[in-house]
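User: Please predict the structure of the protein below. I'd like the answer in structure-token form so I can feed it into my own downstream comparison script.

Assistant: Understood. Taking the following sequence of 765 residues as input:
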Amino acid sequence: MRRTSHPPNAATGPGDPAGTGGPDEHAEAGGHVGRAGTGPDDHACLGYLELLTRGAPPEAYDEPAAHAAPAHGGSAAARGKHLALRIRAELEGRRRREAELTGLFETVHDLAGLRDVDDVLQAIVQRARRLLSTEVAYMTLTDPERGDTYMRVTEGSVSARFQQLRLGMGEGLGGLVAQTARPYATQDYPRDARFQHTHPIDSGVGEEGLVAILGVPLLLRGREVIGVLYAADRRERVFDPEQIALLRSFAAHAAVALDNARLLTETTQALAGLRAVNATIRRASDVHDRLTELVLRGGGVPDVTRALAEVLGGAVEFADSGGPATWEAAVARSRRDGHAVRQDDTWVAAVTAGGEPLGALLLHGHPELAPVDQRTLERAAMVTSLLQLARRSAGEAEQRVRGELLDDLLDAAHRDPHLLRDRAARVGADLDVPHTVLAVRLDPPDAGEAGAGGPGPGGAAARGPFAADEDEGDRQRLWSAAGHLAATRHGLAATRDGGPVLLLPLAPPSHSGRLTRSDRRTRSDHPDHSDRPDGPGPSVGPSDRSGSPDRPGSSDRPARSARPGSSGEPASARGSAPRGGAASVGGAAPAGDGEAVSRTARQVAAELGRAVGGPVTVGASAPVPAPADLPGAVAAAYPEARRCLDALSLLGRRGEGAAASDLGFLGLLLTDTRDVTGFVHRTLGPVLDYDAQRGTGLVATMDAYFSCGMSPVRAKDVLHVHVNTVAQRLERVARLLGDDWQAPHRTLEIQLALRLHRLAGAVGG
């Protein structure tokens, strides 16, 4: 077609009202329209679009015109527009699906990365809100304990009341989803009658302003509902199936995240438990190894308690059988059940051997104890029983050796001293130092009353070493305690005449070098001469003294114990050592082997009494200077110890320990040596020493006083002094011998000592 040109300002014809040109222009336009609607190129373009919308294979594009659909009366442009819109919608859908898949992939990536479960859930809710283009998204989880659901994660929420909502099963849209495990959607929740409306739920939803709500369940293994995932708008909206499917995909991922978190928590707890059990097993193995090692190297019970305390923690102690009554019930229960038992915050494991109770292990500070630790404590109790048996066997063997050696000393007076020393050295005894022989008796509860009646069929002397009704267990405990005492004091122990016999070394006095009370009192007194034989002294009338005028020297102070060896100091303790030694009055014991014997006897009686829980009486012999040099001296000393023991029972001094020197003038009858000088010094020693040091006549005054019937008035005539002088001298005697020196039980000993002193002719005789 040929185009015709016109001048620029040419007018338009009447047939061209729009002023668009002449006939050529119309022809050209008509030609373009014809090509768009009916031309072959137009048909090819529409064919390509049809193929594109139908998703045809590549080979179909070789003849696009054959696939072009007729316009059916419509224009080609309209058909092209329709196809273009379809292609656009398809592209939008694909872009949307791509975004959804990207969100799902990111969620899977979060799950695979083992991120914090709260972060994963928050990310899921955020993506659901973004991809569904809603204003609010949130998630509730099921609370099995309360039987409802609670708000866990919100995105886009502005109401605090809404964020704190709890939905019961079947209440509201979420409660119905949780109850039925099916998704529900509403375009107008406030007006939707399908749901059970409650005031708390409607108030929270109304405050948040939500209208359209979609909820899908969080399912585990397709059955168990653990929560609900929501998407909501503040305007009416219809959720299409694709959006419901997308939210269900996110809900499935959220369920997986929660289940993974649960499994991870359980796995972590299981691993922690395994670590704890492994650590406990290692501790138990360590205890087993340490206990085995200490048994092999000859350790003791303290090593067991120390090792157990380090492994289990807390304080561990071993309680001997017959210990505090606090644990008796728990120990009996542990022994009966064969396991460790708990009492308050202490675990008790009985230590037994063949049914015999040996004690218990006590673990303090553990209200709860794991089973493995309980078995550790029980294993330690078993090891302790083995150690106790081993110690007992060793102790019994050592006791047999000690007993055999003491038996030889008591029976064979002509043993070789060198052999005796060698045998004693093996058990830690030294027979070259002074010893004493002690006879021991466990008195029954009524022994004191039976013995108080004196000798005879019912007296203590007739009872024998042990009464017929004496319990065998008490005898065994007494023998064990005596053997232990001999071992700790480096002595010997044996049984003789039904009771224990001990040969113990004499320990030096712990108070030597200290001033006695007599010394302190004498040095503090103002010197006067009233007690000299010719001293005039000041005049003192009877009214100036306390007590009777005929009994000077007696004050109104309480008298000392009327029985030697009781709560007061024994009478012999008021005596002194030989002249030149330190004098002793009232509580201070003088130096020397004699007082060491008395002290040893008292200590042994007290220790054995505590060990057996009953009164134990001990009689001691005079010192044996060196048993190895004079083996026969031990055999000779034993009868004296026995006589002293019987004398204590006759005197009613049950549960005491004493030597013959503690029994006053009776000691002269009990000993073979008849130590008259020792008796005189023990009775009058302080007075004799005072006269010797100051040249006074206290002994002569006492002799005259007793000779005149204890009358100072008659004694002054014999002494040729004033009566006040006699009174002052007797006051001095009271200070030296004690306020009870004129008591009947003492006057007999004092008068006997005065006569023996006068007969001996000299103090040191």
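That's the full token string. The longest helix spans residues 241-296.
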